[in-house]
Design a protein that fits this description.
The protein is mostly helical. Helices cover 64% and strands 0% of the residues.
Length: 239
Amino acid sequence: MSIQAPISPKRRSESQLLARVRRELRSIADPAKAPLMQAYMKSAMPYRGVQAPLLRVRCRSLFRDTEFATPAVWRSSVLELWRGARYREERYVAIELTGDKRAAAFQNPGLLPMYEEIVVTGAWWDYVDEVASRRIGPILKKYPAPMRKKMLAWSKSENIWKRRTSILCQLRFKRDTDLDLLYACMEPSLESKEFFLRKGIGWALRQYAWTDAAEVRRYVRRNRGRLSALSIREALKNI
């Protein structure tokens, strides 16, 4: 695993962003909801009690008032929020920042170590699925050759969240789905007993079934002896 070295020293503007994020989350939190959200997500990290739609709205105003002069400053801000988080919503803000419109030009294979850190240290579906489908997926589409190699490598990783990412990164591709890559990324996990891999395989197939149901039926038929019942049920749910 390639994890980026810690950032040092912290820039003053970045520290101000983290402080602003914390103040904003405190001001809009509903503490009564926090334990329910933590229990639902089975999270060791506590929640403030901020619902996702409200968090996204507030992120837009927070980011609009923050300057990111260079890709390095933006990346450092993302990782400061991620690494310094005390509440789970602070990590959600970090992921929202990875999708800031100004960062669109920064999205390339060079960001993979940052996303790898988020996937590996986040190690739960709420973080991983967003990064897989909305961050790594678009980079794969724009830079297919290098990213294809990376996703094939991730599909064989001992880390289940890297495997899940390789399986789910094409969720939004529809007719642009590289089926050979999708099947190759699922292959090492077809007989896994890990729930999140079985569920991910079923989800990826179900999503592609909206584009080509016949192909998904064929795939399930060919691999019925290796696919889990959960994967099969999820794959065929909408057919």
